[in-house]
Design a protein that fits this description.
Blueprint lengths: L2 H18 L3 H15 L8 H10 L6 H15 L3 H10 L18 H9 L4 H13 L3 H5 L6 E6 L2 E9 L5 E6 L2 H13 L20 H26 L11 H14 L2 H8 L4 H10 L2 H11 L1
Antiparallel strand pairs: 1-2, 2-3
Helix pairs in contact: 1-2, 6-7, 7-9, 7-11, 11-12, 12-13
């Protein structure tokens, strides 16, 4: 990559931080793709070069990400408004996925515990318990650093406070009141340790290259994949198609329990730490909760 393009990459990274507020993991992906594009030493005003790059990667599972990343880069790089609009409007969009979205399975707490008990790794059982009790994303739990899990007292009873750093560096605080859940988490963090400074991140047997941020992002990705694979095996063992349940479904099941208890979109939005209530509404719509409530009222 030429020196000028290295500068482009560095400045684009800062632009993404300032304008988009991307999380480290997303930021890393953006810069990886742009460095791959800039390594060809392209003429940054040539639409055809952008589209040739997109065509090359349309076979990838997440080809839509390449389109979004190049679009953002054009917004950052091209100062001429007319040329910028011309390139953006003529970028080749990846084909839309027309697959029927699979129905996500809602599992009751006893069913979730059955899945958790079949997980092979102790660390993954702890991760899943935290997800079930708090609705926190798996990646956010993996990101927990030493000192982010704090024993406290609430109304004369012990409680665990978890300081969460979520997507787009949104901070959140969640609590575990369940005594069994507290013991599971405390026993783990007392007698187990990940890489220095983190509770749940384990080292990979592969050499992880790059600077510290990139190393952590790579380790997070690997640890997440290990958790997902373990969960896939566990769901198969209890007779559930692994395609119907994934790590994020612990969060969806938590959302459904919250809604069934409070019927309050503001409570649900707060507990899921959503900035936009439209995202919270999507959880209800995808799981059919609004319709089930309407039909229940109509058929009483």
């Amino acid at each position: 990559m030429m020196k000028s393009h290295i500068m482009d990459s560095a400045m684009f990274q800062q632009w993404l931080i300032d304008k988009r507020g991307l999380a480290d993991s997303s930021l890393y992906q953006y810069i990886q793709v742009i460095n791959r594009f800039l390594a060809t030493d392209p003429n940054l005003e040539d639409l055809e070069l952008y589209n040739n790059f997109l065509i090359k990667y349309t076979r990838k599972k997440r080809s839509s990400h390449y389109y979004s990343i190049l679009k953002a880069f054009v917004e950052f790089e091209i100062s001429d408004a007319s040329l910028k609009n011309k390139i953006i409007n003529n970028l080749i969009k990846p084909p839309e996925r027309r697959d029927i979205v699979r129905e996500r399975k809602h599992l009751q707490e006893d069913q979730l515990m059955e899945v958790i008990n079949y997980l092979d790794k102790h660390k993954h059982r702890v991760l899943a318990v935290i997800q079930m009790l708090t609705g926190v994303r798996a990646g956010d739990i993996l990101r927990l650093k030493d000192g982010d899990i704090i024993p406290e007292v609430y109304e004369n009873k012990p409680v665990l406070k978890l300081n969460i750093l979520g997507k787009r560096k949104k901070r959140n605080v969640v609590f575990i009141h369940d005594e069994v859940g507290q013991k599971i988490v405390m026993d783990y963090i007392t007698f187990n340790s990940g890489i220095p400074g983190y509770y749940f991140l384990e080292k990979s047997k592969f050499n992880v290259k790059g600077n510290d941020i990139h190393k952590i992002n790579n380790l997070m990705k690997m640890n997440y994949i290990w958790f997902w694979r373990d969960l896939k095996q566990a769901t198969n063992m209890i007779g559930l198609d692994y395609k119907d349940f994934a790590t994020h479904d612990f969060r969806r099941c938590f959302a459904r329990r919250v809604w069934e208890k409070y019927k309050d979109i503001n409570v649900l939005q707060s507990l899921l730490n959503h900035t936009d209530p439209k995202v919270t509404l999507r959880y209800l719509e995808q799981s059919g909760l609004k319709n089930i409530d309407y039909h229940y009222e109509m058929q009483k």
